[in-house]
Design brief:
The complex is a heterodimer. By secondary structure, chain A is mostly helical. Chain A has eleven helices and two strands, in the order ααααββααααααα. In chain A, strand 1 and strand 2 form a beta hairpin. The longest helix of chain A has 32 residues. By secondary structure, chain B is mainly alpha-helical. Helix content of chain B is 70%, strand content 3%. Chain B contains 14 helices and four strands. In chain B, helix 3 packs parallel to helix 7 and helix 11 runs parallel beside helix 14. Chain B is globular, with a radius of gyration of 22 Å. The two termini of chain B are 41 Å apart. The chains are: A mainly alpha, B mainly alpha.
């Protein structure tokens, strides 16, 4: 492996890691703050990818499709929380696992009915369809840099909101003590609904920007969900910082695994998880960091 | 003497004797189709029973139980000779042993975690097993592999069962279900079972009482893995075909669904859950190609209205019925103590 290839694989690792972080941060947000284990989070990612496919051909403009998709995701998330999740908070994890598992089946079949089971490709928008030369005549696609940029911007935005705004303060307080926040006169039901909608929008956004690179196929939600679980477990449940570190770690292990040792690539990530669990059973970072 | 045998044992015995009659019943009821469906139910019942030990009695919610089921099924498919019938005893023992060993190894790692972590980590490990079979040529990759000839169960050179006959296979499945129920009932009455239930209620207190809770939980995990291996063995033999899909996490989700549907913490509940699940799936599949939509909707409604499962629903119905029988009676003042 020469230096240029190494550099390109590093960029790929970071890009994949950041994308994983975008999905996992939504999962972490919903779990860390509302205490709901949401298996359907992978389906949200899938919904995003299919939205990119449907909207970009409908609207004809990728940026507009992205914007529209996020708005739709927030509305959908708000409705989902209202219909299904709002009564899960008081129930045990088992009920949450089961109900969100039921939601996965429903989403998968609705997808099959509405769009069919074919694999679709989404074109990279013209204004991002170029590449940057990196020594030795190799080039790196601009679109992948754009993906990393979007993920970084969202991560920075989330950090700023959670750490430095009043809303973030309430969200952090709500994750520690629900009753206390409620008795201070804050509408916790509304807060949860908004947090859930944002969490869903993050997964949908990730699915939308990943669509041109990863293509759109049935079952894509499931595979992403499991990797996100690994991210959350390695990083430490409820820790956004942990999710970032873990996602990048997995990005590198997975990308270089595929290049260096094709056969074992699928398993390497889980070996990494097992090793980290042996060392730190609660993940790398504690909740709330 | 028979005074010491609890009612539940008689109920189980009666149920198994009645079920054993299925293949000898006249045609529309005892048809080959119904025998096959019955065997499917029994296989899933063993699978659900094994998970019930973890979820219902030990309080460990595993979302990776399909790993052991699938691993056992693959063990049969890989060990069974291609040109002749394999030795059923040896294949059954090997697949159960392999599943238990895998459960022991995974259990060693996952016992360090608890609660929500446990759910996620078991899921992730099961996915690892899935990828091992999906991505390598070990078991034919994503195409899977075949059990060409059904194994034979012989005793002193005498062939006991001809598994090519659906009735014989059904009886084998029933026998193994009965053995699983018997074993679990014994374990639950033994020291191990009491310790497990204690751990479910309050692990901290059990540990304070000097109980090595990790060892007990590991024993439970290994036993559950081995028992789901029995189901995996039967599955591979019935279908003659295994592919990575039986290791997929949907399979684990289905097992969990059966346990919850039937009622957590009850052996009959697990069997009832498997029964309802297989029949529901069969029914939905007959209705539409998109049957998972109906299944998903059913799960959501079941979670919403049946928090205690079907067994819990029965208890609730009975209580209501008793309450209604009691309520029309006018409130009779209780006779005072001491008055004649």
């Amino acid at each position: 492996m020469d230096l240029t290839t190494f550099l390109i694989q590093c960029l790929n690792s970071v890009q994949y890691g950041l994308l994983l972080f975008l999905v996992a941060s939504g999962l972490t947000l919903i779990f860390g703050i509302m205490g709901v284990i949401n298996l359907a989070h992978g389906s949200f990612y899938m919904i995003g990818a299919y939205m990119a496919f449907a909207l970009s051909s409908l609207v004809g403009n990728f940026a507009l499709a992205l914007l529209l998709g996020i708005v739709l995701a927030v509305v959908l998330g708000y409705l989902l929380e209202w219909c299904f999740f709002s009564f899960l908070y008081e129930r045990e994890h088992l009920s949450q696992v089961l109900m969100t598992y039921g939601l996965i089946l429903v989403f998968e079949e609705l997808r099959s009915i509405l769009v069919g089971d074919d694999v679709h490709g989404v074109a990279v928008p013209a204004w991002l369809d170029g590449s940057i030369a990196i020594g030795n005549g190799m080039a790196y696609p601009v679109y992948r840099l754009f993906m990393s940029g979007v993920c970084l911007a969202v991560a920075a935005g989330m950090y700023a909101v959670i750490r430095h705004t009043r809303l973030g303060m309430v969200v952090r307080a709500g994750s520690t003590n629900r009753e206390m926040v409620q008795s201070l006169g804050i509408d916790i039901a509304l807060l949860y609904r908004v947090v859930f909608a944002v969490g869903m929008a993050l997964a949908v956004l990730a699915g939308m920007i990943a669509a041109p690179v990863a293509s759109v196929y049935p079952g894509m939600g499931g595979s992403v969900l499991i990797v996100c679980f690994v991210v959350v477990v390695i990083g430490g449940i409820g820790s956004v910082k942990g999710a970032l570190v873990a996602a990048l770690l997995i990005g590198f292990v997975d990308t270089f695994g595929k290049v260096l040792w094709q056969q074992a690539a699928g398993v390497l990530v889980y070996v990494l998880m097992a090793a980290i669990l042996l060392w730190k059973p609660q993940g790398l970072f504690r909740q709330g960091t | 003497m028979h005074k010491h045998i609890p009612n539940a044992v008689w109920a189980w015995l009666a149920a198994f004797v009645l079920l054993a009659l299925l293949p000898v019943l006249p045609e529309p009821v005892g048809s080959a189709f119904h025998q096959e469906l019955g065997a499917k139910v029994l296989i899933m019942a063993i699978f659900a029973l094994s998970l019930q030990l973890l979820v219902g009695y030990t309080g460990l919610v595993s979302l990776g139980h399909a790993a052991f089921f699938g691993f056992a099924a693959y063990t049969v498919a890989l060990l069974a000779p291609q040109s002749e019938a394999g030795n059923g005893w040896w294949l059954l023992a090997a697949s159960v042993g392999a599943a238990a060993l895998l459960a022991f190894v995974i259990g060693l790692l996952v016992m360090r975690t608890r609660g929500i972590y446990f759910i996620m980590v078991t899921l992730a490990f099961a996915q690892m097993v899935y990828f091992v079979f999906h991505d390598t040529d070990l078991g034919g990759g994503s195409d899977g592999t075949y059990v060409y000839i059904k194994p034979e169960f012989t005793l002193f050179g005498h062939r006991l069962l001809d598994l090519e006959q659906t009735a014989h296979f059904y009886w084998l499945a029933l026998l193994l279900t009965a053995a699983t129920v018997g074993l679990l009932a014994l374990v639950l009455r033994a020291r191990l079972g009491h310790a497990l239930v204690g751990i479910r209620h309050n692990e901290q207190r059990m540990r304070a009482a000097g109980c090595n809770t990790t060892a007990y939980k590991l024993a439970s995990f290994t036993l559950a893995g081995g028992l789901s291996g029995v189901a995996g063995f039967l599955f591979a033999v019935q279908h003659g075909y295994v592919n990575p899909e039986i290791l997929a996490w949907h399979q684990s989700g289905n097992a969990l669904l059966m346990v919850i549907l039937g009622g957590i913490g009850s052996l009959p509940g697990a069997v009832l859950g498997a029964f309802s699940f297989v029949l529901l799936a069969e029914w939905f599949q007959g209705m539409t190609k998109h049957w998972q939509l109906l299944m998903g909707g059913f799960i959501i409604i079941a979670v919403a209205v049946l928090p205690q499962g079907i067994a819990g629903g029965f208890v609730w119905l009975r209580e209501r019925w008793q309450a209604r029988r009691r309520s029309p009676l006018p409130a009779v003042p209780k006779p005072q103590e001491g008055t004649p």
